[in-house]
Known about the structure:
Layout: E1 3-8, H1 9-16, E2 24-27, E3 32-34, H2 35-40, H3 43-46, E4 47-52, H4 69-75, E5 94-98, E6 113-117, H5 118-123, E7 131-135, E8 138-142, E9 148-150, H6 155-161
Parallel strand pairs: 1-4
Antiparallel strand pairs: 1-2, 2-3, 5-6, 7-8, 8-9
Amino acid sequence: MRVTANLDLGDYLRIIAGEGNDVKVHFDNGVIVSGEEFVRMQLEEIGAIILIGVMDGPVNAYHARFATPKHREVMLADSTTCTWKGCNAPASECDAHHMVEHQHGGETTPSNLGWLCKYHNSQAARGTRGHTERRDGQITYVSPYGNVTPTGTDHKARADNRKPPD
């Protein structure tokens, strides 16, 4: 079985330096382990590690109608679960959802894709159920009333946490 870890580059460097025991590593199957447990795993034999840095959205991984395996790996930098508020279905069981619908000009790029479980993907086009969108590089859930809840990885906050103190 192949699994993919969502891991910030700075956190990865801390882990391999032996200083990242407090880091939480999220996998696409919903499993979360500590940095110490991660070091003990033999990931090179069973999967991939995605390292991410500060970004306004993931990189382009070529245009297509449907998400490619490369798109899906890059999407793990944003979330390892469904990005609908309150849903924790693992990414391995989710669809790659176009936040701006493809039929309305939404591109099939990681910056326009987010994980939604099959149920929430079927509800996303209904205006009465809310939707997901990217704001300041982070995937958010927007309720029908306009309330915004961040649901994806906050890359900027993760980077700010690694800055040395003044």
